[in-house]
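Q: Protein A?
A:
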Amino acid sequence: MAARIISKSPPIARRTNRSFAQIVILLVFLLLLSGCSAVPGVSLTVEGQSPQPKEVTSGVQLLVLMTVLSLAPSILILATSFTRIVIVLSMLRTAIGTPSIPPNQVVIGLSLLLTFFIMAPVYKEMDATAIQPFLNEQIDQKTALAQAQKPVREFMFRQTREKDIQLFLDLGNEPQPATVDDISTVSLFPAFVISELRTAFTMGFVIYIPFLVIDLVVSSILLSMGMMMLPPSLISLPFKILLFVMVDGWYLIVRSLVLSFTGSA
């Protein structure tokens, strides 16, 4: 029975899992750059001599790497455009009145695809300036990590409010930076996340307004006709779906999400 259930899993869920695995692989590379230059072999042996300090350090780095790797999906999701996209799409289906349509697999899959599309220029710059030179042994791991951080930090700075950055600088008792390069990633990361949440909720509020107007009109009509026992949501749902289809809602939502990151007209 279990085998039959697994074999009937929807194809889109499997594609979403493969896409998510590609994200994790990219983060693993970044963690390897920041952790250790070479992964030591692991063996269970008993030796009479004490291990060399370099071997102990490599082993500790590997242990820390495996520990941080468990947080890799969450870290990568929060450092990209995924947060804003998935919140806006979730609020959209709630505003329409269909909290389970599209299903979660479709919402997550579309959010990942849009995230790949938006973050593609960032990844290409990382690949050209950090990943390929490091694989070709043109730069060391410290330089590769510094080069890989630059595109991601530039992306975060474009989407983060100065007010949010200042908040975490004050909370961390850090000195006022002279340039953006002086702002640590520790302060930039949470500032980027709360800026994304604010922007996502702002876009969600704008999306709610036309559907709220439809609900108010339908409720007023039913109340004037004395049909107080008939749920207004039951009547307004077809009109909200019709409005969303007539204005080509998916085109407008996806276009607004992408342009909110690129800033182009």
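Q: Protein B?
A:
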Amino acid sequence: MKRVDIKICILRVGGTNCDAETKRSFEELGAKADIVHVNELVKRRNLAEYSALVFPGGFSYGDYVRAGAIWAKWILARLGKELEAFVDDGRPILGICNGFQVLVEAGLLPAFNGISQQPEAALASNVRGYGCRWISLKHENMGKCIFTQKVPKGKVLRMPIAHGEGRFVFPKEKEKEFLKKLYDNDQLVFRYCTGDGEYAEGRFPENPNGSFHDIAGICNPEGTVFGLMPHPERAFYWWQQPDWTSKTRMPEYCDGKLVFESLIDYLERKS
């Protein structure tokens, strides 16, 4: 079923490499999705035409300086006011892997008191270097995050990770304060866990990067901006699973579909 009123903008710059998979995921659900180079968005000034915005995975600008840092500062300098208006209007923004890094660097997450001028968190280098594997995630959100409203609380999902800088950290002196805010504001969305749902508690490989409190994904206080390190677009179809050949019968779709489906359902209700 085509959802003609829903139009998704998937941004692209040098180094992004997951835009096509993300586009296909949205189109599988009937939404229109455009892959747009940021230069074109700056030229046309048409961000307001879109229902939602996506920063996809990859290695934007080679991840020089820090992962996502250059793209974050670049887009704030050229589209800062439009981006702020987009958030204020309640339009969703999704950041996947490198996109999550961009949202944190741009102050769009965790955004405890609105968009921050300086990053309040960081996605630092993995404790054990670059990692590419399937991992398990436990859904922690109580309903605030619009991107996981179709995911039951406590459900364990499987998705792949592929990153070298995914270790979520807060400033040491603010860890307790900021973690409490995540829980109080219902901003904690995903934590790394075992396949049985036991928290990783920092253990490798269940926690693949050493993230503080096993954090794999968070949202803003309104639940409309969401960043996660795993790739839902790489866990959309049954045949993307690493063990699909070992099973005689599998569902048509994988767990990643729930993220995109939740967003589409939210946009339909909003319209």
